[in-house]
Amino acid sequence: MSYLALRAVRKVFRAKGRPDVFAVRDVSLEVHGGELVGLLGPSGCGKSTTLRMIAGLEQLTAGDIRLDGRSIVDLPPQRRNIGVAFENYALYPPLTVAENIEFGLRARSSRLRDRRGNREARVREVAERIGLADILDAMPASLSSGQKQRVALARAVVREPDLLLLDEPLSHLDAAQRDTTRRELRHLQQESGYTTILVTHDQEEALSLADRVAVMDDGVVRQVGTPDQVYDDPTDLFVARFVGEPAMNLLDGNLEPGAVRLAPGLAVPVTLTHSRGRVVLGVRPEDVSITEPDRADLPGVLVVYEDLLEFGLATVEVSGVDSRVVAQTAPGLRLRPGDPASLALHRDRSFVFDAATGERIR
Length: 362
Ligand code: ADP
Ligand code: MG
Known about the structure:
alpha+beta, 6-stranded mixed beta sheet, 6-stranded antiparallel beta sheet, globular, binds adenosine-5'-diphosphate, binds magnesium ion
């Protein structure tokens, strides 16, 4: 169980005649022994570059990476005991499943020979753990994407890595496979206690798998916290927008003592007691309810209602407010488009962000 620390890690791609690409800007992050940290962010925000620097496949422009207190940035990849599974599997087509898994042992074969006797036994043991024992002789071309993904994972863990790096490991799987593989992955990680970073652009995947989530945007880590913390207590507008499905409602307004004014004659109470200029009020659909007109914060009209069996989603237009508001309701709401729908917002679960900087106002 190794402990990883990134200290102000930066990566700038420079090429002649092209503008510099600031892929990673001073990222600091700690991953504790046995912990699974989800590195979550939109495409192009610098997740893979961060992972490649940890694995030693990319040089740092600045900063330091420490594994168990020792800097590893000057070690070549094969001298870092790090298992990596990338999105595209990178399996060798002419090799069988067993040979592909065994490939993960090459870099450190001597240590494993001493410790375990032989590679074949080790490959078999890992294959059994990951559900590949029956297809050890198969060729990669004959495998499903779920199986290929497992082979890549088996190859990454076969050498008992100090650190496991997974880049979008579930992205090529269909919904059903993704669910099973996600559960298996979590089980394997917990059982073996690998310190793990899992890169994903899928917030649901990060929230369901990770002990802690690091939310990344444009080369910067915006927030690190447990799934509950990033969901219930977002540090800025980016995190608020990116985490949660259906997305948080975000309404433009002005902060006044005790309320956000959305339009003349239309203010929503909040717990903040000072004023500030332009703000964005954020409230999740589950914290908006349809209520009696005399108890409502916002009078509105139903635009669409979607019944999703376990709950419903009502999209409501509020006159004077630019954005439509989505409320999560009990299933089977008996309102039709065009009907009045009065909304109440959960005051303790409403967030206020500075409109200019996106910073949360507390
Ligand atoms: P993510 O994995 O989050 O989608 P990446 O780390 O792959 O993002 O990329 C971050 C940024 O760095 C992107 O703008 C990407 O185009 C750029 N980038 C990645 N690799 C290179 C490279 N070898 N040369 C130039 N730019 C690169
Ligand atoms: Mg990537």
